From TrEMBL:
Taxonomic source organism: Labrus bergylta
Annotated protein name in UniProt: Rab GDP dissociation inhibitor
A GO cellular component annotation in the UniProt record: Golgi apparatus
Molecular function per GO: GTPase activator activity; Rab GDP-dissociation inhibitor activity
Higher taxonomy: Eukaryota, Metazoa, Chordata, Craniata, Vertebrata
SUBUNIT field: Interacts with RHOH. Interacts with the GDP-bound inactive forms of RAB3A, RAB3B, RAB3C, RAB5A, RAB5B, RAB5C, RAB8A, RAB8B, RAB10, RAB12, RAB35, and RAB43; binds RAB3D to a lesser extent. Interacts with DZIP1; this interaction negatively regulates the interaction of GDI2 with GDP-bound RAB8A.
Length: 447
């Protein structure tokens, strides 16, 4: 291990594995270490089910009714991929898709007035949806058509709503939509966690609505994808990519010290040896004195013997509980997957409810979601601190990722990856540049 590297990466969470893969493709000499014996860190999928019981300190073994322990792959952090989103672009451009198989998530739902409603996936569904009355549907359709045609470079498409000056509150006012439609649009389509977006320039929300619509258009049922065998497959896919391009991986490797000289990282000490490096990427757990706590997330992993009620018995779905519908400051999310994705025993379902903690009784905050999921065979509760870096790496060359938030998609994670990439290289993440580099240096990626 006593070698010199361009980049050392600590932790095998998805953020770290993607950056490791990208840096390897760019021709950097990369060493990747993790104190754990498995890939994924906080974004791992645990198998067998016995390991989930151990992780959450539950006494005894899973009952026989749960089936074989090896049939289970339980995500610690529930997230879906937007079909037209940034992570899918990263998977395609790096060809990591060759290691993965995906299924389309069967439905997207929203909670309103104590009931679950399907988020319309077509104009026909919108017209028959119980979410809105007939006149409200017309107003909502007008908003969607306007957003779809909006071109930031063509003021004729703005209809008086400047992309950088008009707020999203101005947009809703112009189209005359009511509060329920505002909740539904902002939280189920634009996927905001809070209502802070209302008073910000409308262009970001327009782009988010377009992303949802474009993702939905790819497969029809919902805008979301999910990998067979669980999310733990994603970091492993990028780890393989890094290895193909010369990256070195070491699991079960205790990290004794991050070596810093004159304020700049120079290496990592493990088991008495020092590997030297020019740059370091790590998750917050490896260097907490350069991070700050920015909140907490509660997650409840629920094993069910039935599909979620009011969802037409789908095998997978997302349900969003907009903050105003549950008298909160943050949305509640539910991701539901099942035996159809090779993550549970036959006939079993995994529903994971999550939200940003607001009170001293976090589990009670999930009550609206947990009530919808009843009866629950087994429940695993975790409360995770969220960290953000205080050291941006400009001088130290230490680049720390952000903790995984409560959202049920990877867009915020990809924003973090692009931010770290820019701070490391001084240039914006450019998918075409990564593609060129890969082909120029190595030709087609070997099988």
């Amino acid at each position: 291990m006593n070698e010199d590297y361009d980049v050392i990466v600590l932790g095998t969470g998805l953020t770290e594995c993607i950056l490791s893969g990208i840096m390897s493709v760019k021709g950097k000499k990369v060493l990747h270490m993790d104190r754990n014996s498995y890939y994924g860190a906080d974004s791992a999928s645990l198998t067998p089910l016995e390991d989930v019981y151990k992780r959450f300190s539950l006494p005894g073994k899973p009952p026989e009714s749960m089936g074989k322990g090896r049939d289970w792959n339980v995500d610690l952090v529930p997230k879906f991929l937007m079909a037209n989103g940034q992570l899918v672009s990263m998977l395609l451009i790096t060809q990591v898709t060759r290691y993965l198989d995906f299924k389309v998530v069967e439905g997207s739902f929203v909670y309103k007035g104590g009931k679950i409603h399907k988020v319309p996936s077509s104009e026909t569904e919108a017209l028959s949806s119980s979410l809105m009355g007939i006149f409200e549907k017309r107003r909502f359709r007008g908003l969607l058509v306007w957003a779809a045609n909006y071109d930031v470079n063509n003021p004729k498409t703005w209809e008086g709503l400047d992309p950088n000056k008009s707020t999203m509150a101005d947009v809703y006012k112009k189209f005359g939509v009511n509060q329920d439609t505002t909740d539904f649009t902002g939280h189920s389509l634009a996927l905001y966690r809070t209502d802070e977006y209302l008073n910000k320039p409308c262009i970001e929300t327009i782009n988010r609505i377009k992303l949802y619509s474009e993702s939905l258009a790819r497969y029809g049922k919902s805008p979301y994808l999910y990998p067979l065998y669980g999310l733990g497959e994603l970091p492993q896919g990028f780890a393989r990519l890094s290895a193909i391009y010369g990256g070195t991986y070491m699991l079960n490797k205790p990290i004794e010290e991050i070596v810093i000289e004159d304020g700049k990282v120079v290496g990592v000490k493990s088991e008495g040896e020092i590997a030297r490096c020019k740059q370091l990427i790590c998750d917050p757990s490896y260097i907490q004195d350069r991070t700050t706590k920015v909140g907490q997330v509660i997650r409840a992993i629920c094993i069910l013997s039935h599909p979620v009620g009011q969802t037409n018995n789908v095998n997978s779905c997302q349900i969003i509980f907009p903050q105003n519908q549950v008298n909160r400051k943050h949305d509640i999310y539910v991701c539901m997957i099942s035996f159809a994705h090779n993550v549970a025993a036959q006939g079993k379902y995994i529903a994971i409810a999550s939200t940003t903690v607001e009170t001293n009784d976090p589990e009670k905050e999930l009550k609206p979601a947990l009530d919808i999921l009843e009866p629950i065979d087994q429940k695993f509760i975790s409360i995770s601190d969220l960290y953000a870096p205080t050291d941006m790496g400009t001088d130290s060359q230490i680049f720390i990722s952000r903790s995984y938030d409560a959202t049920t998609h990877f867009e915020t994670t990809c924003d973090d990856i692009k931010d770290i990439y820019k701070r490391m290289t001084g240039s914006d993440f450019d998918f075409s540049e990564i593609e060129r580099t890969k082909n120029d240096i190595f030709g087609d990626c070997p099988e």
